[in-house]
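Need C-alpha cells for this chain, all 748 residues.
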Amino acid sequence: MSRLHFIRTALVGICIICYGVATCQIVPNKSGSGRKFDSLFVAQSFVVIDSLQRLGLQQESLVLADSALAVAKKWDNKSQIAEVLHYMAIASSNLGDFNTALQHGFESLQLREEMGDSLGISKSLSNIGRIYYNKANYPKAYEHLMRSYKIAYSLKDTLSMLAAIYNLGLVVNQKGEGKQALEYYKEASEYARALKNELYIAYINNSLGNFYLGKAMYEDALSHYFNALNYFISVKDQRGTSMLYNNIGMLYGRLKEFGRAYSNMDMALQIKKRLNDKSSVASIYHSMAQLYYEKGDFDSAIVWGKRAISLSDSLGALRQEERASTILAQSFEKMGNLKQSIFFYKKSNALHDSIFSQDNNQKMAESEMIWKMEMRQYQAKTEQEKETAVSREHSQSLIFVRNLLVLFIFVLMLSIAFIIFFYRKKMRASQLLRLQYSEIEKQSEEIAAQRDEIESQRNSLANLAWELQQKHEETTSHRDELQIQRDVLTQQKKEITDSIQYAKRIQSAALPSLETVSQIFPNSFIFNRPKSIVGGDFYWVARVGKYRVLAVADCTGHGVPGGFMSMLGIALLNEIVKREEIKTAGEVLDELRDYLISSLQPSRDMTDPSDGMDMVLAVFDEDMKTMQYAAANQAFYLIRKDETGIPRLKEFWPDRMPIGNYQIMRPFTNNVVELMEGDLLYFFSDGFPDQFGGAEGKKLCPTRFKQMLLSFYDRPIATQGELLGDSLERWKNDQIQVDDVLVFGLKI
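Here are the C-alpha cells for all 748 residues:
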C-alpha cells in the first residue's frame, strides 16, 4: 500500500469510526447532546475535507462529504448542508464531473439564498463561476463571478473579493484580453498579500507565469512558476505541484529543451493520474501533443492529441477539446494527410465559435459594463452615507452635552438625598451594635467547635504525608533502575561507535592514498568531508598506459550504508581497470553498471533506483591533450580564461540516469573535451551545493557554488581545498551538515 493511499484511508476512516463510536454513546439523549455532537462532527469534517482536497484526494473527500451530508440532513441543518454541497461541488469539478459539480453548486446557492446568507451566496456564486470556467462557458462564468464580487465588496469581505477577482482574471485571459487579465491579477495579488494568503499568492504566480509565457517572456514566466512550485511542494499540495510541473514543461518545450520538458510533464501526468483528476490529465495530454509537435515527432503528437480529444469530449471540456483538435489538424497537415487535417481544423473552428461566439462576447462586455456602472453607483452611495453619518454624529454630540448637564444636576440632588438618608441610618446602626455584641459571643463558641474540626483534619494530613513518603521511596528505586539502563545504552553506543571507526579505517585503506593521487595528478586537491564517520562519496585514480583515470562518485545514502556502497564501487573499478582494456569512459561506466547490478542481486523491479551511485569518470590522454568523460547524474565544471583574460565557467551536463537500476538504461555517452594549459577542472558530489546555511537558512545552490569557485580559481591549486572548507563553515554557520561533501579539483 502506498503512503498516499495510507493517508487517504486513515483520514476518512478515523473520521467515520470516531463518529460511529461517539454516536453510540450519545444515542440515549437524541434531542440534546446527540444533536450537538452531530453538529460538531460535521464542522470537523469540513476541516478534513478541505485538507483532503488540498492533498488532491477528491474521491476520498466525497466519501467523507456524503457521511457529513447525511448527518446534517438528519437535523435539517441548512447551513451545514449548504457548506457540504459547496465542498462536493469543488471535488466533482476537480474530478472533471462538471455537470454534477454545477448541480451541487446550485443546490448550495439555493439554500444560502433561502437563509439570506450573503457571504455564503458570494462563495457559492464564485464556485459556480469557476466551474463554468472549467467547462469553457465563459459568459456564464463571468456573470456569476461579477455577482460574487459585488456581494463581497458590499460586505467588505476581502477573501471573497480575492477569489472572485482572481477567477475573473482567468476568464478574461481566455478571451485574449491579456492587459485586462493582468490588471485583475495585480488587484488579486494586493488582496492576497494584505491577507498574507500564501495559497492564493502561489496561484496568482502561476497565472502570471502563464501570462508571461504567452508573451514569450520566458525568464519572467519561469521565475513566477518556480515561486509557486516551491510553495506547493512545501505544503505537499499535489494538485498545485502537478499543475506547475506541466506549465514548466510547456515552457521548456518552447525553449526546445525537450528532455526537461518531457521530464516535468511526465511527473505532472503521474500525479494527476494518481489523483484521478481527469480534466487536468486531458490538459497534460494536449501539452504532450504540443511538445512532440514542436519537436517534429508528428506521429507521437497525433497519439497524444487523440488521447486529449477523447478524454476532453467525455468530460465536456470544450476549450481543451478545441486545443486538441487544433494540434491534431496541424500534425496531420505536417504528415501530408490533408483530409484528416481539414476535418480537425473544421472541428476546432466549430468549437471555437461555440465558445467565443459574437453573442457570448457581447454578453460578457455588457455584463462587465453594467457591473462597472453598479460599482461606481455603489461607491458614490457609500460616500453619501459617510457624509450623512458625520452630520448625524455632530448633532448627536450636541444632544449628548445637553443630556450630560441635566444628568449632573440630577446626580447632585440625588447625592444630597443620600447624605440625609445615611445620617439617619447611622443613628439606627448604633442601636444595633449591642445586639451584634451578643451575636459575636455566639460566634466565638462556633469558632471553638471549628478549631476542633481543624485538629482532626491535621491528623488526616499527617497520615497523607506518610503515604507520600512511601511513594517517594518507590520513585527513588525506579530512578536507580533508569540509571542502570542509561549505563547499558552508553556502553552499547560506545561499541557501535568503535565499530564505525574501524569501518572508517577500512574505507580509508580502500581509497587511493594522497601520495598516489599526487603522483598521478600532481596539480590537484581533495576536499572530502563525510556527514558521519564514514560516507558514501569517494574518489578513485589510476594510471593505465598513457592514460590517467579519475572517478568522483556519490553513492546512495551516507554513513555506514553509503560506506559499503563506496567500497563496492572502488573494488569494481579496480577489477575493470586491471584488464587494462580501457576504450572509452562511457564503456567503463556501462561495464561498472552491469557489475553493480549483478553484485547487488536486485529484485525483478528494474525501476527501483534505491541502490546505486552517481559518478563522473574522466580519462586524460597526455599525448593528445584531451579528456574523455562519461557522467551519470553528476555534472562538473571547467574554468578557462577567454581571449581577453576573463575567466569563464562552463558546466558539463551528465546523462540523466544513475549507475544502477533505472527505468530506461541506455549506454552512457562518451564525450571528448580539448584541454588547454591552465584549465581548472572541478568534480564534486551534490553535498556542497545542497548545504543549508546563510542568513536565511537556505541551500547554497549551484549558482553560489560557481561564484565561490570563481572567487579563488587563481589561488594555488593546493590551497583551494582549505579555502572551500573555510567557505563551507562560514556558510553552514550553526546548521548541521546535511550530506557527504566531496570536491576534487585539478589544474592542467
